[in-house]
Design a protein that fits this description.
- The protein is an all-alpha fold.
- The protein has one domain.
- Helices cover 83% and strands 0% of the residues.
- Helix 1 runs parallel beside helix 8 (140-176) and helix 2 runs antiparallel to helix 6 (107-119).
- The longest helix is centred in the last third of the chain and has 37 residues, at 140-176.
- The radius of gyration is 18 Å and the shape is globular.
């Protein structure tokens, strides 16, 4: 169980480091409120579950070991983040205002955005591929159960952090609605962060 404590501590550090997932949740909470932000968090959780499944089947290691496939995934993820940042910059996914031409996000759309943001991020796949096998050091007949346990802990821990970020984003949104200037600026900041993550992902080989 000592290994489990170290594993959870490493996950907590990873989920506290700002990244596209955190920015997406905060922006969704600030722009559309708690419900869509929670839906985006569920999308992120499903994506992490898929990454865990790929890692368990050994497919993630094959993808990471193939430079062409990994680069294609990296560039696709970078393009998606830049596109998402552009949409926020243009006001297509900003805070809904009376008379605004931008329709509010639905929970289904927020869920898809969370799912795609994490699925298209090869760093999330690499994280599972490197971290999980390091902590699976059981007898062969117990490896599957331990992998399932650690994968479940990874997904659940991420979901707890994301739900906390959803609450923080919703609180930020309530404050922003009382400060119109800050409301406009936040959209530019979140857009710049997402686009910046995408550009950084594209430039890092």
């Amino acid at each position: 169980m000592a290994d489990l404590g170290v594993f959870v501590a490493l996950l907590a550090v990873a989920y506290l480091v700002p990244g596209p997932d955190m920015v997406l949740i905060l922006q969704t909470g600030a722009a559309q409120g708690r419900g869509p932000a929670r839906a985006a968090a569920l999308g992120l959780a499903l994506a992490r579950g898929l990454h865990v499944a790929l890692s368990a089947l050994g497919l993630a290691a094959l993808l990471v070991a193939s430079p062409a496939v990994f680069d294609a995934l990296r560039l696709a993820g970078a393009a998606y983040l830049v596109w998402l940042g552009w949409r926020i910059w243009r006001g297509g996914v900003g805070i809904g205002e009376p008379g605004s031409a931008a329709p509010p996000w639905s929970r289904a759309a927020a869920f898809r955005r969370g799912l795609l943001t994490n699925l298209a991020n090869p760093k999330a796949l690499l994280f599972c591929t490197v971290l999980l096998p390091h902590f699976v050091r059981s007898e062969p007949d117990a490896m599957a159960a331990r992998f399932l346990l650690l994968g479940g802990v990874l997904v659940a821990t991420g979901l707890l952090f994301d739900l906390a970020y959803a609450e923080a984003g919703a609180g930020l949104g309530r404050w922003l609605r009382r400060h119109p200037v800050a409301r406009r600026v936040q959209g530019w900041i979140f857009a710049g962060l997402l686009a910046g993550f995408g550009i950084g992902l594209a430039l890092r080989g």
